[in-house]
Write a structure and sequence with these properties.
By secondary structure, this protein is an all-alpha fold. The chain is built from 5 helices and no strands. The protein has a domain at 43-103. Helix 3 (45-66) packs antiparallel against helix 5. It starts with a helix and ends in a 23-residue tail after the last helix.
Length: 124
């Protein structure tokens, strides 16, 4: 008895089904949901990246302004510490403005725990 290769692959691939009930919310009340959203905002990756770039940009800016003349003119007369420091500070400002202007918000009570409803499958 021979099995058709198509039948074999169709049986081997499990069917993914949607969950019939929504996931439980993170918090029991709206106040707890708001508190968890505030805690998530502290560790938002945009804030972390903006903070690191601001720190390194400030260090390079100080080195560019207060460094020796020999170091400043070493790269064909271009202050190699000053300009990347300014660029890093501009990038840090953009990241921090983005993080503070669009913080994460808790899900509305009517859609809490449902997710997007889309299934994400790995490419075959």
């Amino acid at each position: 008895m021979s099995i058709n290769p198509r039948q074999r692959t169709q049986r081997a691939i499990p069917r993914i089904q949607r969950r019939p009930e929504p996931l439980p919310p993170v918090g029991k009340t709206d106040e707890e949901e708001l508190e968890s959203a505030r805690a998530a905002n502290w560790f938002d990756v945009r804030r972390l990246i903006g903070g690191v770039f601001a720190l390194y940009g400030l260090i390079l800016l100080i080195l560019g302004l207060a460094g020796s003349h020999h170091v400043k003119t070493k790269a064909d007369g271009i202050d190699i510490d000053l300009w990347p420091g300014i660029g890093m500070l501009i990038f840090a400002a953009l990241m921090l403005v983005w993080a503070f202007s669009r913080p994460t918000r808790p899900e509305p009570a009517e859609t809490r725990g449902r997710g997007s409803g889309r299934l994400r499958r790995a490419p075959a």
